[in-house]
């Protein structure tokens, strides 16, 4: 029996469709009708989800973590909170995260969502530089971000930032942006390297890997000097403020999903897992039953993204794993601890090539 206590909900509305973005979303131009339509879609997906859970011997327990991701959940506003109310029981100390776009929220909406359990926000800041906000095709400006950050003062909030932005007229000073941002008291930051959608018109202006790697390592060093723990490739937290929800994915634990293109995962013991992905706009899923080999590779892939130390015997399928780790240690990419190994930001910056090396050596 799989007990499910985590849920991701994908809310697919956006006020403006940013030109780099590859996530499934719809332009939110008929608010009332779109909210109603989404509510009806969610109800039928929940019915379908119940049948998946019966087939897979999975059962809900009060939710420990919920994540409303986008699109732009803050556009769901007061009406969405009313629809959501009472749909899923929450555990008393649940972490409930809600993504907010600085240009698409209302104070009443956030209050209504807090009343139904939201206690953590993720703010789609991306940059604090006016020129780079324009280059990134964002619909919000600096002042709108500051207004939201002031509204969230004293609350538990995270901030999303994009690195590797197309080059503007002046060089971007991300450290300066982060310094300004930290004065608002975020407990957590996610810094993603831009991976634009196909056909991105500013592709030629994207900096090369060497420049982006320098930017990534500089922000890592800066945030660590300000007391943030670089606990996952793209994520930084003050102690105790790591995303409990995302740690469940990275630890290979069960996380259910609802909403178009949301992906759910049921861990079914050491040798089996079931993954389902919602088909856009339909209450139907694509299914993947993971084989033992796929599970082992995925466990390795996820584990190496975290700063938590790992042991060689946690992974059985990689040939000469210890020799490879020793060679990485000589290159300053991993640390050798007493009985374990630990990844560093220098390894994460070339993670794809390190994973290729390991995956080609995976045997089982
Ligand atoms: C799915 S978006 C939802 C958040 C919200 N819609 C926003 O943009 O403010 C979550 C985060 O993914 C990141 N993101 C979106 N498109 C990306 C891309 N093409 N490459 C890297 N990160 C991206 C952004 O930092 C964004 O805040
Ligand atoms: S980046 Fe966020 S706001 Fe922009 S289109 Fe994608 S999901 Fe919507």
The best one-word shape is: globular
Q: Could you please say which CATH topology of the largest domain applies here? A: TIM Barrel
Low-confidence stretches: none
CATH class of the largest domain: Alpha Beta
Strand order of the largest sheet: 9-10-8-7-6-5-4-1-11
Secondary-structure content class: alpha/beta
Cα-to-Cα separation, first versus last residue: 27 Å
Number of helices: 12
Provide the residue-averaged pLDDT. Answer: 95
> In the CATH classification, which architecture of the largest domain applies?
Alpha-Beta Barrel
What helical percentage do the residues reach?
Answer: 25-40%
CATH superfamily of the largest domain: Aldolase class I
Bound molecules: S-adenosylmethionine, iron/sulfur cluster
How many β-strands, per DSSP?
Answer: 16
